[in-house]
């Protein structure tokens, strides 16, 4: 028995030594080799050193082809090498091998962070560049998504629901490619990269916008041009309103077009006029320097700000120049009329004839210009200077910007008739001294002067 016991003991001892030796060798081996069946991103690296595993990963992953599939159809193929998957994985493999137990038998599983790290070891610049280029190419005949928006239907504001599209968002596609690589997959689901509408019908901001737009569209918007009133039609106002980028907006081009239409209707500067003359009935008088015009740019901006406030308004139009008197007409009922054909002048005040006289206008070679002007200055004892004359006068009232005006002409022996044909002025309207002395006292600067 003693001998048999000794034998058993010896066998056990040998077995223990053998097992210990085996595990010692195994432990030593797997200190720098990966455990059997170890896989990284679908590639088996069991039994390999970090260096060998790195070469295997570079070779395998660089040659993997990824399919971009859309609705079950492959629309593009890209190799791992194009996506930068043949880069160096040494650092991550070293980190992985340090986690394994050289005495163990189970493989080490990559944590999510390490999976991401391995995927990011691919060239992210290459993935983004590819995704950007491929998205641009694939989007050629694809439909873009449409944001929900506010529209006008049957005179009322409603929310038009958003519409899905199948255009690809390059950033989403790049992320989907990276996710596919991390998951050890080779098919990239393009549909997950579709661009989405940025605004949807359930957004509270959109509902608030409808409320605001309805309120603004119902305001009474009036523009006053002296005693002319222009009310902006509700339909026109609605056509200017919209909701963009999170705010209610007023179309600048729409308002500008409307203001331009008012200018066409009311502006008088640089326009000929129909004038009811004393002796010749209705005559057409060309433009002079007298006139009135809407300051279109400033008026457009002012209207936009008033409309945005959402309250009724009656705005006096912004204008420049002279014109539009209390009676709503351009010239008004106080003016000087100079009839060159009849060589006669009248002064009307508040529609009543105050005084009149024969005059002498410019001779045919230097005619008095026709047009609607105004007295823009009144001077006593002035000297008129021209190319070939220097003449002192007692009363001087310039009416245009070329040196033409009304003044006394004591050197004229007669006025009216056809005297002007040979003895007319250089362009001014010569007045009898006694007549202009009285006229001077009753006319004001700014009085229109109609010459025809």
From TrEMBL:
The chain crosses the membrane at residues 6-25. This is L,D-transpeptidase family protein. Residues 334-452 form the L,D-TPase catalytic domain. SUPFAM superfamilies: L,D-transpeptidase catalytic domain-like, L,D-transpeptidase pre-catalytic domain-like. Gene3D superfamilies: 3.10.20.800, L,D-transpeptidase catalytic domain-like (2.40.440.10). Keywords: Cell shape, Cell wall biogenesis/degradation, Membrane, Peptidoglycan synthesis, Transferase, Transmembrane, Transmembrane helix. InterPro entries: LD-transpeptidase (IPR050979), LD_TPept-like_central_sf (IPR038054), LD_TPept_cat_dom (IPR005490), Transpep_catalytic_dom (IPR038063), YoaR-like_PG-bd (IPR022029). Pathway: Cell wall biogenesis; peptidoglycan biosynthesis. Pfam families: PG_binding_4, YkuD. The active site is at residues 407, 428.
